[in-house]
């Protein structure tokens, strides 16, 4: 994706080994084990179904932990950026931005950031609305 200009329409990132291999295999495994348990009931099959379900939950949680950690880092990074770019009195209102709004603002260029922060605060824009409002996209190619 680094060779392609990033925008709202293509900024979502898929990790092919995770999204197109690990998750499908774990999901198919649940159905296969469920089918085998239905055909041949027993505690061993029930245990395998429980382990299969727990592996699927674990895969989802691992992904969730990674994105939540990255959101925390983005919030810290963007608060420093906002403090450096915004003028008073807008700088004093940084604390009013929600975490979701801050994460959405990371794609805004320095030039359009003050006006977009003002809109986000005044209009209570969502993360998605903020990203849609960006005209000069600042790419983030390192998202997990």
What does this structure look like?
The protein is mostly helical. It has one domain (8-133). It is 64% helix and 0% strand. It has helices at residues 16-39, 43-85, 99-105, 113-123, 127-133. Helix 1 runs antiparallel to helix 2 and helix 2 packs across helix 3. It is elongated. The mean pLDDT is 92.
Please give a quick description of this structure.
The protein has 144 residues and is mostly helical. It contains 5 helices and no strands.
Elements, N to C (H/E):
HHHHH
Average pLDDT value?
Answer: 92
The total count of strands amounts to 0
Number of domains: 1
Helix content: 55-70%
Name the poorly predicted regions. none
Percent in strands: under 5%
Please outline the major beta sheet: none
Q: Please report the number of helical segments.
A: 5
**Which class do the helix and strand fractions yield?**
mainly alpha
- What gross morphology would you assign? elongated
Radius of gyration of CA atoms, rounded to a whole number: 21 Å
Distance between the termini: 13 Å
SSE layout:
Layout: H1 16-39, H2 43-85, H3 99-105, H4 113-123, H5 127-133
Helix pairs in contact: 1-2, 2-3, 3-5
Looking at this protein, list some descriptive labels.
elongated; 144 residues
């Amino acid at each position: 994706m680094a060779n392609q200009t990033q925008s709202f329409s293509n900024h979502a990132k898929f990790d092919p080994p995770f999204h197109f291999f690990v998750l499908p295999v774990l999901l198919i495994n649940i159905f296969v084990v469920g089918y085998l348990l239905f055909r041949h009931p027993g505690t061993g099959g029930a245990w395998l179904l429980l382990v299969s379900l727990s592996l699927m939950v674990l895969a989802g949680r691992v992904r969730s932990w990674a994105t939540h950690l990255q959101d925390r880092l983005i919030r810290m990074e963007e608060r420093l950026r906002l403090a450096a770019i915004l003028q008073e009195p807008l700088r004093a209102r940084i604390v009013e931005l929600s975490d979701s709004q801050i994460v959405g603002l990371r794609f805004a260029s320095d030039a359009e950031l003050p006006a977009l922060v003002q809109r986000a605060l005044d209009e209570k824009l969502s993360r998605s609305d903020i990203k849609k409002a960006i005209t000069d996209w600042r790419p983030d190619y390192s998202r997990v």
